[in-house]
Specification:
Distance between the termini of chain A: 52 Å
Order of helices and strands of chain A: HHHEEEHHHEEEEEEEEEEEEEEEEHHH
Radius of gyration of chain B: 23 Å
Shape of chain B: globular
Structural class of chain B: alpha/beta
Family (chain A): Belongs to the iron-sulfur cluster assembly SufBD family.
Largest sheet of chain B: 10 strands, mixed
Oligomer: heterodimer
InterPro entries (chain B): Fe-S_cluster_assembly_SufBD, SUF_FeS_clus_asmbl_SufB, SUF_FeS_clus_asmbl_SufBD_core, SUF_FeS_clus_asmbl_SufBD_sf, SufBD_N
Protein name (chain A): Fe-S cluster assembly protein SufD
Strand content of chain A: 35-45%
Distance between the termini of chain B: 25 Å
Number of strands of chain B: 24
Strand content of chain B: 25-35%
Helix content of chain B: 25-40%
Largest interface: A-B, 37 and 36 residues
Pfam families (chain B): SUFBD_core, SufBD_N
Number of domains of chain A: 1
Number of helices of chain A: 9
Family (chain B): Belongs to the iron-sulfur cluster assembly SufBD family.
Number of strands of chain A: 19
Strand order of the largest sheet of chain B: 4-3-7-9-12-14-17-20-22-24
Structural class of chain A: alpha/beta
Helix content of chain A: 10-25%
Chain lengths: 429, 522
């Protein structure tokens, strides 16, 4: 089917500004496949059903919209945690600021190195999970990423890794664009935690493909930077083997435009997948969580918990889907998306979907939107809690269900502290 | 062991003895489609296919004024430029719109029969199968002086059919063959007639409201309907009037390859109330039949409209052959403050259902409610739900949807709840539950939630599950067989919606729920 003219033009315009990096045989083939996918499907448009709540225009215009940088965080995220630090500045790997790339229980290298070799294990993952995720819904920004990613991290986890691997994305130039692609292969019975934080660039396109083998465990906690004007489109692809565990949590504070897509495929039996997110937005803030979980194996569990606090015209979007395939019996699927609108101008748009082809399942979803509960507020006030404090208390309680999804209590406490700070800063206004 | 066996037989015997009649009845109903006969009466057909001439012909046959013909032609021209929607989760072979009849009329209408004896016996047979009482039959068949003859019958001691009275406007294929209880309704000032009659007799009302809720260019099927609708019902309830009886229409599709394009327009003026029942049956057919109806409801200040539907059109056989294609646009406009519209539907029929009864809550403090049961069995597909568009302040809406999927069927709830920035302090509660019976079927939920102000509250809940094993075990341990147990549990699952139906519909619906699921277990 021919693309509409507007789409074709937009795609050609952006592709004209991008250059495919030099790379070896396997990677070249994967990138060219991705490029032909992309030209066939075209870049997203507001009129696409999958983008009905989020206008992708600023994510695809050839000229990167400028984003001022706030500079270094005085209290860098995850600093209190012992970790292997890998730093990218505006999407470029920074060897000076990064730790030595060695850690017991895993092999780690940069994508830019892995892709120069003629043959590499990453070949079986790079772009492969992304392709699987292109149906039934097209994800052109992910294909764009596979075709043009400049760098990334390629990790093979063979044992239980003690320290988390921490990816730090610094943002220095106000017109930078970063396209990063990470590959994580968790072997059978191995486990790893990956931390990500920072705004990365004025415009950031990131994809992470995670293949978790049987009984493997993958944990992921990310904080999406504090620069107000940054834009990001991220994709997290996961393939889960038997009895594997996949847990991902995202905290988003600020950011003009964020689209986080998470596509998980539970192929083995008894796999567990939890995806959660807490987002707080003030003013010019558009945050979109799009999740697609496919249950292929039996007796799997999936959980989606997304909470958003919005004020001053901030917009929150949630598109979640649980697809239970024919034969995926005894599936337990849960999905909740909630928004707290702190004033009249904020908006929450949601499309929580279920598509179920197996009969012995328990799937549910809930979605609520509203203001702070007046009765709860009254109760707290009657107990002598001042109004502003009572409101903050209720907001934090509202976000708690999502933050509870984080297993590591130190990190959870740190994130709560940062949210308290965000609320406190807004009280002076 | 031996004594236990004897006990079992004893229980079975008692059950057989007690329930034999009921069992037979249910068997008789379920073996083939209950209303799957085909009445052989002469039809007055327009040629197959669709073009401007056909549109003009339909308009002319209905004796419509020029503005109406122009309106239809405008819709037809618009339709030619539109594309058939493909976003719903239903699959069906492409429809050849030129291979349909767009107009069919029972011939016996040409001359008025003197009494029931003169009426085409086939037609009477149809009424009997539908269970229409005798005096209603007379009026429906267009017998001269039917009211007086019916009154005569009353004096002769024909028993009343029941405590509640229902005025029926039967649509036999495309032309409304008669309207009952006209006089009594007229006394109350209520206008209840076919839409073709309303176009002739009450053009000012029709002109004002027709297409004001569902514009002629609304969607592919509604536009097609606007061009070719042959008949339908029209109701106008004047200010402050509480309609003295429930209004009802039977839609029947009778002639092969006749598309039914019904148009219903109900206007409840200030402070009035009306309850409208729509029940549908259609004879068994091998080729697919197309149905694209439009229903428009207008509720002015303080008015209330209750619209209930039981739809059990031919769903196709066990292999998915045949069955009705049902593409319906139903929308209510709560135009006045404090107006209220309540949609209740029980959807058990049709091969393909595409239907989203909606409410535009324009007036402040207006209310919209939607209660739905959609049952799909064998190869049926249903994509149904509602839209609640909150525009006015303090508006409220409630959605309760129960989807039951069995066999190879696919059942989708698709809904929209939209709170506009000005719809402050509004409230929505949505509950969609799906029940799966068998491993080959599918149940899907696609809700859209758009909240654009903070003082409103929107809550959405959905669950999907199978018939609970514990409940099944309990029922079976009490002597119900598997099928009865499923019927009982499913009826319990649907209770919230069944309770919202008017009495006579609730009974029929309950029976339908059980019958629709026959053969889905074991």
């Amino acid at each position: 089917m021919a693309l509409p003219k507007a789409k074709e033009d937009a795609t050609a315009a952006l592709l004209g500004t991008l250059q495919m990096p030099d790379c070896g045989g396997w990677c070249r083939a994967a990138r060219e496949d991705a490029l032909s996918r992309l030209t066939a499907m075209g870049l997203p448009h507001r009129r696409d059903e999958y983008w009905r709540f989020t206008d992708p225009a600023s994510l695809i215009v050839p000229e990167v919209p400028k984003a001022a940088t706030l500079g270094a965080d005085p209290e860098p995220m995850f600093d209190q945690i012992e970790r292997l630090r890998i730093v990218f500045v505006d999407g470029v790997f920074s060897p000076e600021q990064s730790d030595d790339l060695t850690l017991a229980g895993l092999e780690i290298e940069r994508l830019s190195e892995a892709m120069t070799s003629d043959i590499h294990w990453a070949r079986d993952i790079y772009g492969k999970l992304e392709v699987e995720a292109q149906s039934p819904v097209a994800r052109p920004l992910a294909a764009l990423n596979t075709a043009f990613a400049s760098d990334g991290i390629v990790i093979r986890v063979t044992g239980k890794v003690e320290k988390p691997v921490s990816l730090v994305y610094l943002h220095e130039r106000d017109d930078s664009q970063a396209i990063l692609h990470h590959i994580v292969k968790v072997e059978a019975e191995a486990s790893i935690t990956i931390l990500e934080n920072g705004p990365a660039a004025a415009r950031f396109n990131k994809a992470m493909e995670v293949d978790v083998a049987d009984r493997g465990e993958f944990r992921h906690i990310r904080a999406q930077g504090r620069d107000h004007e940054r834009r990001a489109a991220t994709h997290l692809f996961g393939r889960l083997g038997q009895e594997s565990v996949f847990k991902s949590f995202t905290l988003t504070v600020n950011g003009v435009m964020t689209r986080n897509e998470c596509v998980l495929n539970l192929t083995g039996d008894d796999a567990v997948a939890h995806v959660a997110g807490a987002a707080v937005g003030d003013g010019d803030f558009h945050h979109d969580d799009t999740v697609f979980i496919t249950h292929g194996g039996e007796t799997c569990e999936s959980r989606q918990v997304f909470k958003k606090v919005l004020k001053n015209g901030a917009v929150g979007v949630f598109q979640g889907k649980i697809l239970v395939k024919d034969g995926a019996q005894k599936t337990d699927g849960y999905q909740i998306s909630q928004a707290l609108l702190l004033d009249e101008t904020s908006q929450f748009l949601a499309k929580p979907e279920l598509e179920i082809y197996a009969d012995d399942v328990a799937c549910s979803h809930g979605s609520t939107t509203g203001a702070i509960d007046e009765e709860a507020l009254f109760y707290l006030r009657s107990r002598g809690v001042p109004d502003a404090e009572a409101r903050d208390l209720l907001i934090l309680a509202f976000l708690a269900e999502a933050i509870d999804e984080i297993d590591d209590t130190r990190i959870a406490e740190d994130l709560i502290g940062r949210l308290e700070g965000w609320l406190a800063r807004r009280k002076d206004d | 062991m031996a004594s236990l066996d004897t006990a079992d037989v004893g229980v079975a015997d008692v059950k057989e003895g007690v329930d034999q009649e009921t069992v037979d009845q249910v068997r008789a109903l379920s073996g083939t489609y209950k209303h799957g006969w085909n009445t052989d009466i002469e039809m007055d057909f327009a040629p197959k296919g669709l073009n401007e001439d056909i549109v003009r012909l339909i308009s002319e046959k209905n004796g419509e004024p020029e503005w109406m013909t122009d309106w239809r032609l405008g819709a037809y021209r618009r339709w030619l430029e539109m594309r058939e929607p493909d976003w719903s989760m239903v699959n069906y072979p492409p429809i050849d719109y030129q291979d349909q009849y767009y107009y069919a009329k029972p011939k016996s209408m040409a001359e008025k029969p003197k009494s029931l004896d003169d009426v085409d016996p086939k037609l009477l047979e149809t009424y009997q199968k539908l269970g229409i009482p005798l005096k209603e039959q007379m009026v429906l068949a267009g017998v001269e002086n039917a009211e007086e003859q019916a009154a005569q019958l009353d004096e002769d001691g024909e028993p009343e059919t029941g405590g509640r009275r229902v005025a029926v406007d039967a649509v036999f294929d495309s032309v409304s063959v008669g309207t009952t209880f006209q006089a009594e309704l007229r006394k109350a000032g209520v206008i209840f007639c076919s839409i073709s009659e309303a176009i002739r007799e009450h053009p000012e009302l029709v002109r004002k409201y027709l297409g004001s809720v569902v514009p002629a260019s609304d969607n592919y099927f509604a536009t097609l309907n606007s061009a070719v609708f042959s008949d339908g019902s029209f109701v106008y309830v004047p200010p402050g009037v509480r309609c003295p009886m429930e209004l009802s229409t039977y839609f029947r599709i009778n002639a092969e390859n006749t598309g039914q394009f019904e148009r219903t327009l109900i206007i409840a003026d200030k402070g009035s109330y009306v309850s409208y029942l729509e029940g549908c049956t259609a004879p068994q057919r091998d080729t697919h039949q197309l149905h694209a109806a439009v229903v428009e409801l207008v509720a002015l200040e303080d008015a209330e409209i209750k619209y209930s539907t039981v739809q059990n059109w031919y769903p196709g056989d066990e292999e998915g052959r045949g069955g009705i294609y049902n593409f319906v646009t139903k929308r209510a406009d709560c135009r006045g403050d404090r107006s209220k519209v309540m949609w209740t539907q029980v959807e058990t029929g049709s091969a393909v259902t595409w239907k989203y009864p909606s409410c535009i809550l324009r007036g402040n403090e207006s209310q919209g409610e939607f209660y739905s049961i959609a049952i799909t069995n064998n190869y049926q597909q249903a994509d149904t739900g509602t839209k609640m568009v909150h525009l006015g302040k303090n508006t409220r809406s409630r959605i309760v949807s129960k989807g039951i999927s069995a066999g190879h069927a696919q059942n989708t709830y698709r809904g929209l709840v939209s709170m506009h920035p000005k719809a402050t302090n509004s409230r929505n509660y949505t509950q969609c539950d799906s029940l799966l019976i068998g491993s080959e079927c599918g149940a899907h939920t696609v809700p859209y939630i758009e909240v654009k102000n903070s003082s409103s509250r929107v809550e959405h809940e959905a669950t999907t599950s199978k018939v609970d094993d514990d409940q099944m075990f309990y029922c079976q341990s009490r002597g119900l067989d598997e099928e009865e147990a499923v019927a009982l549990i499913v009826n319990g699952f649907c209770k919230d919606v069944l309770q919202a139906l008017p009495m006579e519909f609730a009974m029929e619906a309950q029976q339908l729920v059980a019958i629709s699921l026959e053969g889905s277990v074991g």
